Amino acid sequence: MTSAPAGGLTAELRGFRQVQTLAYECAEAVAAQLKPGVTEREAARMQRHWLRERGVRDWFHLPFAWFGDRTAFVDFRIPLQFFPTDRRLEAGMPFILDMAPIYKGHTADIGYSGCLGPNPLHDKLMTDLGAHRELILREVRERRSLREIYEDVDRLMVRQGYANRHRAHPFGVIAHKVDRVKEGRWSPHVFGFGTRSLRGLAADALRGHRDGWSPLWSPYRFSDHPPRPGLWAVEPHLGFRGTGAKFEEILVVTDSGDPEERAFWLDNGLPHVRRWAEEKCR
Question: What are 232's strand-pairing partners?
């Protein structure tokens, strides 16, 4: 069992699943409209418009879009390089849509990988990501430290022949905590990140520093502790010769003594999970 516990989701978790589902519906709708010549900026704008039309007014971060070798964060050195550019999509080119909407106070952060037409390499990366989802869940249930799990993800990528591209993220994170956000009439953001969410993450960081844990799941010493109960947006990201692929979704961690309820993915009906299920049936 890798999704909800036997008793079902609480009302609170259903709220998080609702916004995560909304974000993936947005990703699939925008992906279906992509065509040669569309720019990253246009794809990001399409995500914003789609979600705003459905009631989203706040963000953990505004939508991103990456095309071609930017899906593998090639030569990314500074945070500004993550923002959408005028790179144009071409036939056969991989893309990633990444968005983090807040709806009714619940936060999601998702990553959707696709390709504009056939691309066997991209298909291979997407298939191989499935083993990372299984590994992460298994080792979180074993209460291994976040740092150890990160290192095991790294080792699996090496065995598969890939490069770790989430290491290019700020602080090299593979995941971060998400939480409820107080709703308000105005939703300011700074450098693409919602200020309410940033304040919450900063407050978690201060509490964690005092109590010996971090809301950032990284390869560094501050993540050398067991998984903290809560919701984690997890995004293993593979790269190979200018092609990148990832998924991002919410992992629920609890303090339950039952291993299956100790950690579970919030939803097993997401596009990448359906893809793997279909591949196993072939």
Answer: 177, 251
**Residues forming beta bridges with residue 239, ordered by sequence position:** 163, 244
Query: Checking phi first, is residue 40 left (phi over 0); if not, alpha (psi -120 to 50) or beta?
Result: alpha
**Whole-prediction pTM value?**
0.91
CA distances for 3 relative to 127, 147, 169, 251, angstroms: 20, 23, 27, 9
Q: What pLDDT, on a 0 to 100 scale, did the predictor assign at position 28?
A: 98
For residue 177, list its beta bridge partners: 232
Q: Considering only CA atoms, which of 139, 137, 164, 141 is closest in space to residue 149?
A: 139
Below-70 pLDDT ranges, the chain: 1-7, 184-206, 208-209
Return the CA Rg of the chain.
18
Looking at residue 3, its pLDDT comes to: 47
- Determine the pLDDT at residue 105: 93
What pLDDT score does 8 carry?
79
Which distant-in-sequence residues (6+ apart) come within 8 Å of 1 by Cβ? Answer: 260, 264
Give the pLDDT score at 275: 96
Q: d(Cα 173, Cα 150) in Å, to the nearest integer?
A: 9
Q: What does the pLDDT read at residue 1?
A: 32
Q: Measuring CA to CA, which residue among 72, 90, 73 is closest to residue 34? A: 90
- Number of Cα atoms under 13 Å in the Cβ half of residue 49: 8
CA dihedral (74, 128, 17, 214) in degrees, to 10, reads: -60
